[in-house]
Design a protein that fits this description.
mainly alpha
Length: 150
């Protein structure tokens, strides 16, 4: 429970580190939690992290859309863990980037339209790549140092 709280707090810090507009480092602790603590914990941390970014950005897409995005991200964090178990680091980063980038952008089209997709797919994909890569990097460094449960 303490580790989840610490990772959520790191998500709050990451929410203030913007990559592009509302795209931030809020997902990194959630992806890390998925690897270190398990998929369900990662889902909790990443969805709360997204909501913290939405709060610090003034809910630019509205509360319901941000709740929808947070739910998507929870699923992606869980699947990130599954991909890591099956395909290791590269598989997890590729899958996490694709799901939280282009797939998430397409899933917003019925709500926000194709203009949203065209504007946001690149920044969201880049943010996803950075978050998933850094999470797996931290996790694997910790593994090499014997600081994980493997």
């Amino acid at each position: 429970m303490t580790m989840v709280a610490v990772l959520i707090a790191l998500g709050a810090v990451g929410a203030t580190v913007k990559i592009f507009n509302t795209v931030a480092l809020d997902s990194l602790p959630g992806y890390f939690a998925a690897l270190y603590l398990g998929g369900w914990y990662g889902a909790i941390v990443i969805s709360v992290g997204h909501m913290l970014t939405a709060i610090t950005s003034g809910f630019p897409l509205g509360l319901l859309n941000h709740l929808y995005i947070a739910a998507q991200m929870a699923v992606y964090a869980y699947l990130y863990r599954v991909a890591y178990k099956k395909a290791k680091a590269y598989g997890a980063v590729i899958m996490g980037t694709i799901l939280n980038g282009p797939v998430a952008s397409v899933l917003m089209v019925p709500v926000m339209g194709w203009g949203f997709f065209a504007t946001w797919v690149l920044p969201i994909t880049l943010g996803s790549l950075i978050n998933t890569f850094l999470a797996v990097l931290v996790y694997e460094v910790m593994q090499k140092k014997g600081l994980t449960r493997a």
